[in-house]
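Catalogue entry: protein
Contents: sequence, C-alpha cells
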Amino acid sequence: MKSIYDVIKKPLFTEKNIDLKERDNKVVIEVDVDANKHEIKEAVEEIFKVKVDKVATIRVKGKLRRFGRSIGRKPLKKKAIITLKKGEKLDFIEGV
C-alpha cells in the first residue's frame, strides 16, 4: 500500500479549473497513475481535512515529441476532479 502523500502530486491551475472551483465547488489535482478513486478520496480527506462527495478520474495520454530524427512520448498523466460536499472549501492559494 502506498502512502497518502504519494497519491497526490500537485494541484492544477487553469482557467477552466478555477471556473469549476468557483461554480461547482470542484478541485482538479494531478494524481499518481496507479491510484484509484478510493485512495484519492482518502488522501484528500486526510491531508486537507475536508469532506469529499465524489471523485472522477481522467487518464491523459502523453503527447508525441520529436527530438531530431527520433520520436519520443511524454509520460502518461492522471487527473482527478474532486467534488467537495456543501459548505466545504479548499484553497491551495488564497485569493485564487
